[in-house]
Amino acid sequence: MSQNPAQFFSKTRQYLVVGASSNPIKFGFRVLHWYCRHSLPVIPINPSSREIHDIQTSDNVHDAWNRIVKSGVNYDGLSISFITPPNVTRDVLQSIKNDDTQLSEKIKGVWFQPGSYDSKVLQLAQELGIGSVLAYGDCILVEGESLLREASDEEAAAKF
């Protein structure tokens, strides 16, 4: 599994925050806010809320992808941040694995926030063939700035 931030961040990527919260003190809100503050196209995933941070939520990753397809915007894929307990993260990844629409091929990267993964989650991510898996204690609120900048630098260098 790769931890390449350039595979997670892209100017043509759609981002999802699984475990987004409307409670400003929770990490699900703070991570969603991080994406908004960086003007990245993001969809909060939360089946209990219709809107968070003035953004329409989706109940799950499948619904979010269907919304993206219907919008007509051409993204190169999905990068997903998980802020959920490992059992919920596993359920989401398993539903993607069991999906018959090849949704897993659209996922270019996942960022497992601290506490959102275990060895079974990492194994499922590997089975799905996800290009970039960021985990091992890295938090987007701490590492995101530098990794986003690094990915931008790599994209710029690739053009020359």
From TrEMBL:
Residue ranges that the Swiss-Prot or TrEMBL entry lists as coiled coil: none
SUPFAM superfamilies: NAD(P)-binding Rossmann-fold domains
Domain CoA-binding: 13-144
Matches recorded under InterPro entries: CoA-bd, NAD(P)-bd_dom_sf
Domain of life where this protein originates: Eukaryota
Protein name as it appears in the record: CoA-binding domain-containing protein
